[in-house]
Amino acid sequence: MLKLKSLALALAMLVSFVSWAEQAKPVEPVDMTAQPSMSVQEMEVSIDINSADAKQLSQLSNIGLKKAQKIIEYRTLHGQFTSIDELQKVKGIGKAIVEKNRLRMVAAQ
Fold first, then answer.
1. Is the pLDDT of residue 44 over 70?
2. Which of 19, 23, 38, 68 could bridge to 58 as Cys pair (CB 3.0-4.6 Å)?
């Protein structure tokens, strides 16, 4: 009987230890402000919207050669972009496209 009680006590201690050990594991905090993940290639490429040609501009998400050409036409008529947000003035370029590409663009003066 004493052997059975000792075994039960040892088992209870083991379960308690395992439970405690699970709770003691560090938990990584979740960053709720994190940006959508981008590939390494996307993060390395910064496209200057004031000097890029149509081929370079078409590398941006949702920007094909037609929209790229419209960006160049707008830039030619109105001068350099003073900000990335100004791209929204180009027909066919909305806020969603600007936001999706914001980290990949610069408007160098």
1. no
2. 68
Indicate the CATH number of 46-106 among 3.10.180.10, 3.30.420.40, 1.10.150.280, 1.10.8.60: 1.10.150.280
pLDDT in tens, 67-87: 999 999 999 999 999 999 999
The rounded distance, in Å, linking the Cα atoms of 53 and 80 is 13
C-alpha 94/C-alpha 66 separation (Å) is: 15
Q: How many other C-beta atoms lie within 10 A of the C-beta of residue 14?
A: 10
Residue 108's identity, in one-letter code, is A
